[in-house]
Amino acid sequence: MHVKSNVTYWGMAGKREVKRKVNSIxxxxxxxxxxxxxxxxxxxxxxxxxxxxxxKFEEWAKGIYxxxx
Length: 69
What we know:
The protein has 69 residues and is mainly beta. It has one helix spanning 54-60; strands at residues 7-13, 16-28, 32-40, 46-53, 61-67. 10% of the residues are buried.
């Protein structure tokens, strides 16, 4: 799945379904792209943030949960 900024994606963390909002996509370290994301909690509030290689994030993402304008 091709990821974009300002979109919330869902995927699996173990047996749980989790949602992560993509804040930005950064290019670092000899052209490697990283996704800066924020966890969306069950109550809709923001949780911890993380940085993941774009390739790995795209493998993790199962679908789009919400698009933010």
